[in-house]
Amino acid sequence: MDIFLAVLRLLYVLVFFVALFISLKFQWGEEGKDERGKQILNTSYSIAFPFLPLGWLLIELYSDYVSTVSYEQYKMVIWYLLTGMYILQALSILVLRKKY
């Protein structure tokens, strides 16, 4: 089971790096600099980044009222929250590029 979880974490990290590449390539490339690209970036930010305060609130509520979260667990959950937001932002860039 530990090997399975390690493989899943590795796949998640690979997905994160691909998403980061997609996001940075779009932002720093020519496509992200025109009016259409700025609209796509603003929309993708507005989709992905409201999950930060919402996720953080849920983590804090869980830690306060359901079960205590150790420091290591807290770091891991925050890491998944931040990387998940970037993955969602890259996915929304891919979808919005086709839409606009």
How would you describe what is shown here?
It is a single chain. With about 100 residues, the chain is mostly helical. It has one domain. About 85% of the residues lie in helices and about 0% in strands. The chain has four helices and no strands. Helix 2 runs antiparallel to helix 4. The chain starts with a helix and ends with a helix. The mean pLDDT is about 95.
SSE map:
Layout: H1 2-28, H2 35-48, H3 51-66, H4 71-99
Helix pairs in contact: 1-4, 2-4, 3-4
What are the secondary-structure elements, in order, as H or E? HHHH
Helical amount among residues, as a percent range?
over 70%
Radius of gyration: 16 Å
Label the overall shape.
flat
- Contiguous low-pLDDT stretches (5 residues minimum) are none
Number of strands: 0
* Share in β-strands: under 5%
Number of helices: 4
For the sheet with most strands, the description reads: none
Helix and strand composition category: mainly alpha
The domain tally reads 1
- Compute the separation of the termini in Å: 44 Å
Mean pLDDT, rounded to whole units? 94
Summarize the structure.
The chain is mainly alpha-helical and 100 residues long.
Keyword list:
100 residues; mainly alpha; 4 helices
